[in-house]
Amino acid sequence: MKKSDQNNTITIGQVSKIKQISAYTLRYYDKQGLLPKVIRDKNGTRHFTNEDLQWLDMIKCLKNTGMNLEEIKVFVDSTYQGATTLVARIDLLKRQQDVIKETILEQQKYMDQINAKIDVLNKELISVENGKSETNK
Amino acid sequence: MKKSDQNNTITIGQVSKIKQISAYTLRYYDKQGLLPKVIRDKNGTRHFTNEDLQWLDMIKCLKNTGMNLEEIKVFVDSTYQGATTLVARIDLLKRQQDVIKETILEQQKYMDQINAKIDVLNKELISVENGKSETNK
DNA sequence: ATAAACCTTAGAGATTACTCTAAGTCAAGT
DNA sequence: ACTTGACTTAGAGTAATCTCTAAGGTTTAT
Asked: What are the tens digits of pLDDT across the range B99-112?
């Protein structure tokens, strides 16, 4: 155990491995204000707590459901403004759930579209196999 | 009806309106080889057929399910290579369906995660409303 | 015949989200 | 003491996907 290890915190390299996010990206997120609670030691080295890791999960969730970093920052800032923004934050999350619902419906629609295309191509394939066509159809 | 209208084709501006894609983007797609069948008149003006519009739907489908333009071009090129690539194209579409399935599962996971977060925030809200906290929690 | 409203091109610029480089600091191990 | 390896910063570079500009051509209506 390194001398610098303390209070159950881990450094950026360890976070990178655990969360499969490059240290570059983590620093970038920090620079963009997405990780305001990450503490620094006297050398400036970041020390991530479990809470910070949970934040990363939340950021990943919002990002992968279509929110860009600027919008995520609004949520982060809102969180650190405290209890007065609770209702706004709950609303924001509910709207994001609506986004997810739409995404799922959209993806299902695309699934159907590809199914239809596969059917068309399969018919073409059978037609070719039966020698009904000598040229490209 | 304009003199140039013929054979049920429409120009890029009309496609733009109908498909809600900017003419810039359509030209960009064409430049990238995603629209190889669009015909030109003697002035170089593009004339889109119904088949081209269907292609645009397919491109949109593949793009919005996570495929990048380079990968889409592989599919487009493959299509214009004719019947010898039918099996490969069907496989590609089936793999894309797998991608969609994963996307939907992932999105549902994020939905759950946000639900959990909303629960936490709602409890915080109730706590604040009951005056159990004077400071930011 | 001239204006309006289209279309064309090549290539520059914008945006987002990284990704990396250079130069340097610090702590641990031998 | 020195090497190794992890960390730091500011800022440059990259990739993908547009998005626009400048300069110009064609068609249609008045």
From this structure: 999 999 999 999 99
